Amino acid sequence: MITIREVDRLESFSDAVFAIVITIAVLALRVPQQATLESLRDILPIFLVYIFSFQTIGTYWNNHHHLLQASKRISTKIMWANLHLLFWISLIPFTMEWLGKNIGAIWSTAAFAFVLLMCGVAYRILVFTIVFHHGQDSELAHAIGNDAKGWISIGAYVLALILAFVAPWASYVVVVLVALMWFIPDKRLQGQLKN
Fold first, then answer.
1. What is the H or E stretch that residue 168 is in?
2. Helical segments of 71-167, H only
3. Which structural domain range is residue 11 located in?
4. Diameter of the chain by CA atoms?
5. How confident is the model over 103-112, as pLDDT tens digits?
6. CATH number, position 50
7. 118-175: pLDDT as tens digits
8. What is the C-alpha separation between 154 and 151, in angstroms, rounded?
9. In the Cβ-directed half-sphere of 151, how many Cα atoms lie within 13 Å?
10. How far is residue 54's CA from residue 47's CA, in Å, rounded to a whole number?
11. Which of 33, 46, 138, 153 is deepest in the core (most CB within 10 A)?
12. pTM over 0.85, yes/no
């Protein structure tokens, strides 16, 4: 069995990946060639997608932190589930930049929605793996509950992916609504679990 020290080690590794992903995302922003407000208009789409992506990555980082802090022990399965999540998170900057340069296009919108969907699925797998490892009657399992917010997010991302092929702008509305839903911090693990 892996000790509590290994939980901290897993979180430190994950924090480093989150930090690198956010750094890569900001590198997609290019300074305009001219010092005019009109020149900012050209980078506005990528800047708006960056703001959204930053918030999304930050939300995953925040919830990931609380999830690991609430975990008393980890297993190899948890480590692989965590890597699975980090893989999808690491693709956000790529799809963010593609979408920012091709706003309104079907395939860039679909790719962005797909990566967000897979981030949601991967996070749900990580939660399930940790809860399974701790037991269905554990304090952690009770704190997580039925995770309605997580399931709604996954359903909304599926809808956003479908809408990407018929109405890209409607897809953006859906993913922004999911982000707004998560903007209010999820306090289940903070409030119900003892440190």
1. helix 168-183
2. 76-90, 92-101, 106-134, 139-144, 148-164
3. 4-192
4. 61
5. 999 999 999 9
6. 1.20.1410
7. 999 999 999 999 988 887 888 777 777 788 888 999 999 999 999 999 999 999 999 9
8. 5
9. 6
10. 10
11. 153
12. yes
